[in-house]
Amino acid sequence: MRMYDIIKKKRDGFELTKEEIEFFVEGYTKGDIPDYQISALLMAIFLNKMTKRETVDLTKAMLDSGDKIDLSNIEGIKVDKHSTGGVGDKTTLVLGPMVAACGLPVAKMSGRGLGHTGGTLDKLESIKGLRIELSKEEFTRNVNNINIAVCGQTGDIAPADKKLYALRDVTATVDNISLIASSIMSKKLAVGSDGIVLDVKVGSGAFMKDFDNAYKLAEEMVDIGNSMGRKTVAVISNMDEPLGYAVGNALEVKEAIETLRNNGPEDLVELCLTLGSHMLVIGNKAKYLDEAREKLVDVLESGKAYEKFIEFVEAQGGDVNYVKNTSLLPQAEYVLEVKSDEDGYVQSMNAEEVGKCALFLGAGRETKESEIDLSAGIVLAKKVDDKVSKGEVLAYVHSNDKGKGEEIVRRLKDIIKIGDKNKDEKKLIFTIVKKNS
User: Fold this and answer.
1) Catalytic residue at 230?
2) Which residue numbers delimit the Pyrimidine nucleoside phosphorylase C-terminal domain (predicted)?
3) Which of 78, 123, 187, 420 is 20 to 30 Å apart from 232, CA to CA?
C-alpha cells in the first residue's frame, strides 16, 4: 500500500477503505509518513469530504492509536458529558453533582482551558487544596463511594488526533465536519463510558457559528457514538451570549455553587436539567425525560446536589470552607463597573468577544504555557433582552491590573449592544439530535 495512491484516490473523490485509513493513521502516528503527504491528504479530505463510514473508520483508527481508559471497576452504567466549548460554561461543576446525587456515576475526565474557552480543571483549582491529579485507584474509589470524581486525562489518549490536529491547524483544514467529529469522538470513546451526552454549542462564542453546521456536527458525532456501541445524544445549545453571568475561573465556581444552592441563573439551570435528563435516561435512572427532570429538580431544591459537591471537594482534598463561604475564593484587587450610556434593551453581546476580554484580563491561556489568574474575569449584570436604564451597571470587570481593567470596561461598552427590544425571543436549546433523528 502506498501513500501516493491513497492521496490520489481521495483527490479524485473516491471513498477510502478501512485498511487505507488505518494505514495512514498508524503510519503518521509512528512517524513513517511525512507531514507533506498527510497535509495533501487532509486537503483532499477537506475538499471532497468523507462518507459516514469513512468518518467512523477514521475515528476508530485514531482511538486505537493510543491508550483506552477502563472504567469496568466502577459500578453501574457510566454516562459521559462533553461540551464543544463556550464562554462561561461551568456546566460540569453543576451537572456532575446533580446527576451523582440522583445515583448515576460521574467518572469525568476534563481538560484545561485554551483561548477564550475555559477549562473545568482550572476552575476547580480555585478551591484551595483540590487535587485534579488522581491515581486510577483513587478515581475508581471516589466514584464507587460518592458517585463522582473529576480528574485530568491520564495516559496517551488518541495520539494520532494530536498529530493530525496540529497539522490541520497550520494547513487550513480544521473546518471539516468529519475531521472535527472524529477528533472529538476519538478522545471521548477512549474513556470507557457506556453512553455520551454531547452539548454542541452554536453561536458567536462557539466553534460552530451557524445552526446548520452545528447540526451536521451533532449528527455526525451521534452516528459515530452509536455505531461504536455507545448510546449517544446531542443537545444543540445557544452560545451567542455567555452561559450564566460569570466568566472567569473563581467567578464561575462561585456561580456554580450558588446554582447548587438553588439560586442560579435560569439559562445555566435549564441547560443542566436538559443535559442531565438525557444522562439519567441513558443511565437507566429514569424511564422518561420528564421523570428524570423531576429527580434533578428535587436534588437541587432539597440541597442534595449542593451536599454532593461538598462531598466531592472533600474527597479530592479540597477545603470545603471555600464552598461554604465563597468569599474565600480568589478575588481580584479591582472591580470596575461598566455602565450603560443610554436607555433601552440589551440587543446582543458577542460571546466570543466577551471571552477574549476575560482572556486579556488573565482568566484564560494564550498558549498552553500561559499562567492563569484565577480571580480575573467578568460578571454580567444584564443579559440579552434585559431592560437597561442610562447609568445602570451592565457588567463588573474583575482585574488585578487596573489599566487592563479600564481597557476592558471600554471594550465591553462596544460589545454589549443597547437598542430597541428584539422581536424574536431568544432560545437556549435549539434541538436534540438522537440516533436516526
Assistant:
1) no
2) 345-419
3) 123
Confidence tier at 155 by pLDDT (50, 70, 90): low
Question: Cell triple for residue 31?
Answer: 512517524
* Catalytic site includes residue 169: no
Q: Which set of grid coordinates corresponds to residue 3?
A: 501513500
Span 36-60, pLDDT tens digits:
999 999 999 999 999 999 999 999 9
Asked if 210 is an active-site residue, the reply is no
pLDDT at position 122: 87
Residue 306 resides in a domain: yes
Kindly state the cell numbers that stand for 20. Answer: 487505507
Q: Which of 81, 82, 90, 254 is catalytic?
A: 82
Nearest to 235 by CA among 196, 262, 179, 205: 196
- The helix (H) or strand (E) run that includes residue 355 is helix 351-361
Question: 99 and 248 in one domain?
Answer: yes
Closest CA to 405 of 340, 356, 334: 334
pLDDT tens column, 219-274: 999 999 999 999 999 999 999 999 999 999 999 999 999 999 999 999 999 999 99
Query: What is the full DSSP assignment across 251-299?
Result: HHHHHHHHHHTT---HHHHHHHHHHHHHHHHHTTS-SSHHHHHHHHHHH
57 is catalytic: no
Boundaries of domain holding 21? 3-48
Give me the CATH number covering residue 387: 3.90.1170.30
The model's pLDDT over 390-432, given as tens digits with 9 standing for 90+, comes to 999 999 999 999 999 999 999 999 999 999 999 999 999 999 9
Same-domain pairing of 96 and 149: yes
Candidates 108, 168, 201, 254; catalytic one: 168
Is residue 187 annotated as part of the catalytic site, yes or no?
A: yes
CA distance 291 to 274: 12
- Tell whether 430 is covered by a domain: no
- Within a domain: 278: yes
Mean pLDDT (the chain, rounded): 93
